[in-house]
């Protein structure tokens, strides 16, 4: 089994390294053509959402196909070469009782050994400092589905192993109950029962039902601690298979150790007084919006040598709220490669738990110490970017906004296009990133490749009548047509204006490649957005890269639209989950 796993990873790394070798080595070659055809077929067949959404959630068919292949492979390995016969043998010292020997014992041992052998793979799939990401180029968070379901497979294997030997020791072996009581007194059997309790706890308390009732922090820390105890119990149960438990423990501690080193590398430096110490970032916290449409914006300056790439994220911890929890947030700001002091901006949707506590901090104190770990994930756009479509829903704009600037700066074909689409509930949501959106909008005057579309889904133009001249267009959508504002209103000085003036400046239709569509009680068609973009890209030529972030329902619609694209050019798609 591990020969197959390592063989696949080796082949994957070889092909990936060869294709990254440069155009001279790969363009037009047979391997390159095969890889492109495989990518196109995978996109058409496996990108759309898989069935059984109530079981698996909104996931592409590719994830379910991988799980199916793994499950089928394990099923074959669990059943092949087992001797399916029954033997009745006498019991020494008895004349009226007999042992019944079957293939159950061999099968139970087989699935138990497979559960042991799968443990290191399950740990690899859960790592934040992921070795698999380095080999495959896939961000670590996209392995969480396989980690969760592989854990459930291990639970099923452990249950069958326990059930098989329970049947043997309580029913097939005689005399009873002496055989079973003697069996339970043995140390390896006690450790086996303890391991079964631990894997049951891990399985039950990793379900969405349990996480909602106990909280994410409880899940995170109990999952980590109980996983270590489970591995230790497995080691105690059958030490001859410690060859799987030792690397599992080593991978866990290596991952945690690297996380700690990265945290110290960011926050350890010279503090006041000239001594070496730990220095958190002091962040400004502001609450923006009202009702059910509130976000918390976090801004701070921090000196660190390693800048991030657009699209990457940091894990943020707020010691004043809880030192035991950190959460991933995409950085909405663009790093400055010429400076050691970087500006960080984050948007957090206010829900229950820690985000509501941050909103309270914004209303009272207004600042909070922040500890970062990262950056994580991969940067975008690709180095050979040609045509880029960026689609964001609500706070997913923190992922797409910095990528838009990076894409414009590194376009290798002057006539290539960059489409920026942002779907929000209300027009006032533009005030989450007022300066940033004003700067992006100002680039329309100089860069003909850029186009910006804003969709407002829970508001009609009537709400903005006092400050904007509203004219309806065909269909349910409406577009604001306001008088052109002065260039000062679109510049970085927008922060000095009132909220109403800022919003009016952001909504002003002062460029032909900027639109604001109001679609109350309706969502924009991702199919129409993608088709419009691909038609324009086809007239310019070049590869297509489509990136998105936002609600999972939007991700499903976008995947379905990308899957049916018909083009001879390469299509690269990435969805950054916000759920």
Automatic annotation (TrEMBL):
Its EC number is 1.16.1.9. GO terms for molecular function: ferric-chelate reductase (NADPH) activity. The chain crosses the membrane at residues 62-84, 149-168, 188-211, 218-238. Keywords: Cell membrane, Electron transport, Ion transport, Membrane, Oxidoreductase, Signal, Transmembrane, Transmembrane helix, Transport. Residues 1-17 form the signal peptide. It catalyses: 2 a Fe(II)-siderophore + NADP(+) + H(+) = 2 a Fe(III)-siderophore + NADPH. GO terms for cellular component: plasma membrane. It is a multi-pass membrane protein. InterPro entries: FAD-bd_8 (IPR013112), FAD-bd_FR_type (IPR017927), Fe3_Rdtase_TM_dom (IPR013130), Fe_red_NAD-bd_6 (IPR013121), Ferric/Cupric_Reductase (IPR051410), FNR_nucleotide-bd (IPR039261), Riboflavin_synthase-like_b-brl (IPR017938). The keyword Transport applies. Belongs to the ferric reductase (FRE) family. This is ferric-chelate reductase (NADPH).
């Amino acid at each position: 089994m591990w020969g197959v796993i390592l063989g696949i990873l080796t082949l994957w790394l070889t092909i990936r390294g060869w294709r990254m070798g440069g155009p001279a080595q790969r363009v037009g070659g047979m391997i390159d053509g095969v890889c492109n055809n495989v990518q196109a077929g995978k996109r058409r067949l496996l990108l759309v959402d898989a069935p059984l959404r109530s079981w698996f959630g909104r996931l592409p068919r590719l994830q379910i196909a991988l799980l199916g292949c793994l499950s089928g492979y394990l099923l074959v390995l669990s059943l092949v070469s087992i001797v399916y016969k029954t033997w009745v043998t006498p019991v020494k010292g008895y004349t009226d009782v007999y042992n019944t020997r079957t293939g159950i014992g061999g099968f139970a041992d087989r699935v138990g050994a497979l559960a042991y052998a799968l443990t290191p793979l399950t740990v690899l799939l859960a790592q934040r400092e992921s070795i698999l990401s380095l080999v495959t180029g896939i961000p670590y968070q996209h392995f969480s589905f396989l980690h969760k379901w592989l854990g459930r497979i291990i639970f099923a294997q452990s249950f069958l192993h326990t059930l098989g030997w329970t049947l043997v020791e309580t029913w097939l072996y005689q005399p009873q109950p002496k055989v079973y009581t003697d069996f339970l007194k043995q140390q390896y059997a006690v450790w086996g029962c303890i391991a079964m309790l631990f894997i049951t706890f891990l399985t039950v308390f990793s379900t969405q039902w349990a996480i909602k009732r106990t909280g994410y922090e409880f899940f995170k820390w109990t999952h980590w601690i109980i996983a270590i105890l489970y591995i230790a119990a497995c080691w105690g149960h059958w030490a001859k298979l410690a060859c799987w438990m030792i690397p599992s423990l080593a991978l866990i501690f290596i991952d945690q150790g690297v996380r700690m080193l990265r945290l110290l590398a960011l926050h350890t430096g010279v503090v006041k007084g000239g001594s070496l110490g730990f220095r958190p970032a002091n962040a400004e916290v502001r609450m923006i919006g009202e009702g059910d449409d509130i976000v918390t914006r976090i801004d701070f300056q921090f000196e660190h040598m390693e800048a991030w790439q657009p699209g990457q994220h940091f894990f943020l911890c707020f010691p004043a709220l809880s030192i035991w929890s950190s959460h991933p947030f995409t950085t909405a700001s663009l790093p400055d490669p010429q400076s050691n002091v970087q500006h960080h901006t984050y948007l957090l949707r206010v829900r229950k738990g820690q985000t509501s506590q941050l909103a309270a901090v914004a209303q009272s104190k207004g600042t909070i110490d922040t500890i970062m770990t990262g950056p994580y994930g991969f940067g975008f756009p690709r180095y050979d970017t040609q045509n880029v479509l960026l689609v964001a829903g609500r706070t997913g704009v923190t992922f797409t906004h910095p990528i838009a600037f990076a894409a414009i700066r590194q376009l290798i074909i002057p006539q290539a296009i960059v489409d920026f689409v942002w779907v929000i509930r209300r027009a006032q949501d533009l005030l989450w990133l007022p300066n940033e959106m004003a700067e992006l909008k100002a680039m329309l005057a100089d860069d003909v490749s850029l186009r910006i579309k804003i969709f407002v889904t829970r508001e009609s133009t009537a709400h903005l009548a006092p400050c904007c001249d509203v004219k309806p267009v065909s269909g349910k959508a409406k577009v604001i047509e306001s008088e052109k504002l002065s260039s000062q209103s679109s510049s970085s000085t927008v922060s000095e204006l009132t909220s109403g003036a800022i919003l009016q400046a952001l909504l002003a239709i002062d460029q032909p490649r900027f639109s604001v569509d109001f679609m109350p009680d309706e969502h924009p068609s991702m199919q129409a957005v993608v088709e419009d973009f691909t038609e324009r890209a086809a007239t310019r030529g070049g590869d297509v890269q489509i990136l998105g972030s936002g609600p999972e329902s939007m991700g499903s619609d976008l995947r379905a639209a990308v899957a049916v694209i018909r083009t001879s050019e390469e299509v690269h798609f990435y969805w950054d989950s916000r759920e």
